[in-house]
Amino acid sequence: MIVPLFIAQIEDDRDRELLTEYYLQHRFTLLHVAQSILHDWGLAEDAMQEAFFRLAKNIKNVRPDPKQVRSFLVTITRNFANDTIKKRNVVSMLSWDDLVYEPADDSISIEDIVTQDDELERMAQTLPIIYATVFLLRYKHDCSDRDISAVLNISEAAVRKRLQRAKEKITGEVRKKEVVHNA
User: Exposed end of the chain (fewer CB within 10 Å): N or C?
Assistant: First the structure.
């Protein structure tokens, strides 16, 4: 079923039905387009979601022609995926050593794992660059979702999802190490 955030943007019942119909018709096409560019399933999902968020905002303008809807969605997905690649290349040019450490004041479970600067950077380096960037901006530079969203030009929902995925990957790595140490 369609992600509730898309529906929340639509007030008209007919428009909600149209958005649901478009989602069911085009979601796999958009995932395929994004995956072929990004080669990362999570990022492909982000690109697809961005396309549907924009469709939700412009549903009144694209309703008359179903071909126009598909073209609109594919164009948004392709552009978002290409922008993600560009950002990935720019961020990958940064050295982790160039980032200045400013300890975060938040008390969340992931910070219990990260006890030293070296550990934080090492964990970030194990992540795909798209997640590492968001992870470091949050936990090393203490940026809010809004700040990260503005810096990376992505939605706050995408920031939260990327942080969630980064935490899951790091937690998985920590668990693997615990199994090795306990064996």
Answer: C
